[in-house]
Amino acid sequence: MASAEDEVLTGLHQLLKNIEPTLKSASGSLDVAEDVLLHLEETDESFHKHDFVKYIRENIETYIGPLVDEEIEKRSISGAPNSVSRQETLVQAVAESAVESRLFSDLTQKICSSTSSAANTLLRSLDEEHNSMGSDEEVESQLSKRMRSVFSEGASTCGSSFNQDSLRRCSEQFHCIADEMDCRKPIDIRRDALTRLCHVPPSDVMASESWSQLRVSLMDALADPDPFLSHTTLSFHAKMFAVSNYQIMRETYTCLAEHLIRWFKSSSQSLPSIYEPLDITKSEVVLLIKRIRLLNEFQCEVPSIWVRYPESFLEVIVDSSLSLLCLQLKLGKNSNNSDKLTALHFLSLIDIRANWFRKWLHGNYSRATLINSLEGKYQPVLQDAVLQCLTFCRDSLSKPKSHPHHTPQDGRRTTYTPNEIRYARFVHSLCFVSRLLFYTGGRELFPVSIDIFPHPISVQHLLISWIQLIGLAKSKPKHGHKAYEPASLVCKAICNLCLSNAFVEQCVGDEVISVLLIPIRTWLEPSSKRYSESCMLHIAEILACLTSTCAGRKLLLHGSGSEKKSAAAHVIAEFAQKSLNSKLPSGTLQSAGNIPSYSVVGAFVFVCRQMYNVCEGLLLLLEYNLHQGIAAAWKQAHEKWGDSHAVPLKFDDSNENIDEQSSPTQSSSRNLVLWEETLLDNLLNFAATPKGLLLLQQTGAINECVAYMHSRYTKKLQVSKCEKFGYGVMVTQVAATAAGTSALYKAGFLRAIIHELWSHLEHATDEIRMTAPRPFPLHPIDRSVHKSFMGLVNVLSSYPAVHELFYQQQLPNKTSYTFREMPESPINLIDRLVMINSEAKIHALFNYEQSHVFGLREIIIDRLSIERNYLLVKTHMIGGEGERLLPSRSLDDNSQQRRQRHYVWPLFYHFPIPKEYTPTIASQTSMKKESALSRFLASSKSSEKNRQWLEQLRSTFCKVMKTAASTVRGGVLIETIEKTIQALERMPEERVFKKTPTRGQFRDSGSASNNNLQNIGVKLAIRYGKQINALKANPETAAANLVTVLRTCSQFLAQQQSYSSVLKLTSGPYPCYDWFVSSIFLMVSGSKDRSLSILMKLSELLCSGYLWPARLHASIHLSEGVRASGIPPVFSCTGHHVELILQAEHPLIYSAFRMSGYTPSQITQHWLTQCFWNYLTWTQVTHYIVTVITMGCDYQVYICVSILKHLQHEILSHRQTQDLQVFLKENPIEGFVVSEWFDYMNKLEQTYRNTVLTSMRNIA
């Protein structure tokens, strides 16, 4: 017991010593000193660190803690109807139960007794020490007496420990202040009472029993004409708002709001009418504005904290606010309300953009409550906002000059005109309604019924009114100037809404689009009125936002009309095309001009760009030849600017508006430079799609466009204000072609990637590496170089890119290298990191192990040797899933290896390859299985092979593939191909290429330079054919026959090729190995004559242009521009439509590719170029070929889409691990069976055949 008393004595002494400076600052007032002690926890940051406080808390936790836990558990599991449901009620109930318990009473007695004893000891010590002190210590002596009274009072109840006498005196004091503040008291007494109230802590004010009386007195004081009373009371409310207690804030806010409600009801007659100017220097107006501003400031701040408090706090704030805003709203036809200024008018002047409402709607916590309130009894607030928007638009349209541009005045304004007040109300209502429409719950409040309108007001009605107001725009505000021009504000509001796909889908229809197109149509027809440049810019900005969403783009491209030309996209494209070509019809003398400005044309070209940078939009706008128009305008601007100024300037959106102080020459030159860069930027975006890339190549400006892209890419700039991604996807798209790769190399893009990669590998990035070298690499690729590596993979992912960069290139193999010498090209990178065959190369690397392992990864027998073994086996063997066995890539890939603790696969270091890597594939039975397809083919006659017969064949083929796909093999498969070709030969739309020349017409194609490549390919093909039992002859004979077929086909195709020296790819015969010819050769079991017969007949048909990549290489059947581009139809057409269907049918897959910086068209081109060898099993490869020939070449697109859909899970997964490119190129397509996807492909045919097949037939 003695130790406990000592602990209390020490703790109490320490507490008094620590707060001694605070007590001395009490200015000799015992009341203030007592108040300091009672509110010490609120003012002392170290309150909970005092030993005395810790002693009390430990006792409470020891004795009362278990009781509280037991009570909480009991009330939580109680299922009684009267059990508490809210946290605040639960806490209150548990606290009350604990305080009334016997344990709490005993603990209180114990603490009070020990504390009283310690206090007496301290007081005796103080008295003895300060006996000689006089009047200077009167404060401390009186404080000692007060402390005696505090600690000598009761040890019986909790209340006595907190000094009931003191609380009683405080209550009496508040009651006295409340009485003295009564409005009937003399002014001096009220002032004195208010002054004393301001010195009382806010928590005590709210806790007093006289708060209800004080509340009334405070509201009277706020409305009092005496400046001291009104201003001091307002300051008191501001002080109360600063307290972090929701009850105090709630009471303060409701008090202020209720006062304003009472004031507007009783004193609004003193305010001017809405038809009179408002002088804001009058004292009553100044005070009113200050009150509403304080209310508004709290409205703007409270959303950040109300989620911490009970819902009742939010509900009271919302209810009080909307009650105030509902006052004196004049909505009906026969309303008797006076035309006086309301609270909404003043709030509009203070917070013109309704920031308070925007913040209240931001969080779902408050949004639901607010929207429910607007739907219920506070609907007049919404009705008034809608009414203000509509009446302002109506009046502006009827009297265009009655509402001039509204801009802030310089200096401090003293008066608001009626028009300015009304305009502020309109802006506030516009922001109020537009923000509400942004959310689903807000849109559900529409249509809104207003008495003065015969029909409910829909969202479309509002949008049309706003768009019509934009038509009145006369001038565009200066950049950076805070203007409140009506058209600009309305445009911004509509743009924010149109960026929401949900809003566009629900609220924007053909009617709204038609109104948007009215200003554009006036420029396309000789008209008496043409809309201003500002109006056209606003319309273009709205259209650009619309096209950035899927729903908006679909609406503009197709609309809901049945006629093709009815879509808005055609009107916009026609205007852009004629503006670029200066072919707009002449207007009248009163019109704004016959030629739109660069800004207007650029804005509408950007809208078209938002449409043609997706596959669907490009196909729709193809007829307008926008790529030619933009390219011609760019060349014209480039010539005007001159070659001496051709260095690209910094492209900055802030430069769009020319400084007025600039000279005319400077403004003109600056505008011309911006115009040139705008055109180049829009032209570049044709490269976003495969077919668009072909069009860009045909303009001859691809090098300049790629150089411009590189300048923006290095600055980490986005593609546009409406794009979420950077240039990564576009770079990959460009790199899929030889011309694009050449442009990237010339622009320095490859050099930048290689330098970045080299810096990560060779240059230290921090000082730690100077003393501690990096650990030896164990992972396939270090994270520090992963991004650079993937960038290099994207660029070098296609064969045309590799051929363009590496063909006829020699390794430098220099005798010496310097440490600071960085590789400039891919061949130099390989020379420095991979082909390290000299001491000079080794000594020229700072980090030889890391760099060389990154390049080659072949060292001792460890994980890297295992990776080397994997690569050697993989490059030697060919086959799809189950047709080749690849070794594992790690020591613990399977349970057997983990148990044995060693690598179970033999290392492949000499020929022949170990038998463990060659699976046993059973040979197909020679017996011919009967099927509906074989019976149909057997019953067919040569004369019957017409269009009707082909439709019957396709129907039979589909049924057999769905039910008995295993029978479609061998002779049946080849017979199907041969008889289908016979039928297709009789159809002009399918036989699109020239008649096959006789063999005597063949000339040497000069393909001897490719003999090495061809020999390697022949060996691989023959080895694969023997492995899958497709060849019956011995390997030597089969190889000789295949070489003959390949040479014959090469010579045949050379007769129809025209070479160009611009690109390495098109400077000679087809540079790749012909996998399609090898496929046909294996399908006919190595028959030389039969394979040549099929290939020669097939070469005349449309499907050969897609199935056989070599068929149209540098072919004279292509237009000169397409032929010179080196872009094959497999990329520009098949890849384009694959992306089109993915974007419409499988947006998740399409987005995964974009986020990976990779494109579906690139991997599609890779698969199709090698005829799915190494990706699909041989059976699926043959089914792919026969399906495309029989069902139509558009089925090539549907099969690729089906494969990507089949791989959706893996694509999304590898997008997360950031190795999607590597996965798709290195791994076989597991589990894909062509016949299982026929139902899905039939559905795609029904939806897309008209679009896809029409486009594919246009290649010749």
TrEMBL record:
GO CC terms: cilium; cytoplasm
Keywords: Cell projection, Cilium, Cytoplasm, Developmental protein
All copies of domain BROMI N-terminal, residue ranges: 12-137
Location of the BROMI C-terminal Rab TBC-like domain: 855-1259
Record's subcellular location: Cell projection, Cilium; Cytoplasm
Function field: Required for high-level Shh responses in the developing neural tube. Together with CDK20, controls the structure of the primary cilium by coordinating assembly of the ciliary membrane and axoneme, allowing GLI2 to be properly activated in response to Shh signaling.
Official protein name in the record: Protein broad-minded
